[in-house]
Amino acid sequence: MGFFHYYDIGHAEVFVFDDFLIKQVKQGETVDMEETKLFKLILEEHFSNKNMAYISNRVTSYSVNPLVYKESEKISNLVAIAIIPATPKMRSSAKYESQFYNKPFGIFDNLSEAIKWVHKIIEKENSKKTIPSN
User: Fold this and answer.
1) What is the DSSP letter of 133?
2) Hey, which bits of the chain come out as E strands?
3) 63: which of 51, 85, 101, 129 is 20 to 30 A away, CA to CA?
4) CB 17 within 8 A of CB 3
5) What is the CATH number of the domain that holds 105?
6) Banded model confidence at residue 132, pLDDT cuts 50, 70, 90
7) What is the pLDDT of residues 38-86, one digit of tens each?
8) From what superkingdom does this record's organism come (predicted)?
9) How many domains does the chain have?
């Protein structure tokens, strides 16, 4: 799992790894449909034709329009979302948001747990695409 790329996109920092990315949104920002378009551009650049996962490391308080999850579901190679909330209120918000996303969605206490989980989901999805040889 080597460090791949770093973006400071104004409202957030994005850390891109081999098969997942970690995003940390800045205090007081709002994640909405416009932000999702920028997110898709990063995915296309680094993960085209490759399964990947999104990890939201919520170290600050910000708002999320839950409709972004419906838009995110349309990204075929985005196979899972993991959230790491810093507070009980953030955990509650993440549970609410999970209702809007119909792919694997996990809430974790720390980054290590989230990374282990997304690797399992990606492995599972990748194995579905593997065609056994005769």
Assistant:
1) P
2) 5-8, 12-16, 20-25, 30-31, 52-58, 63-64, 78-85, 105-107
3) 51
4) yes
5) 3.30.750.24
6) low
7) 778 888 889 988 999 999 999 998 888 888 888 888 888 999 999 999 9
8) Bacteria
9) 1
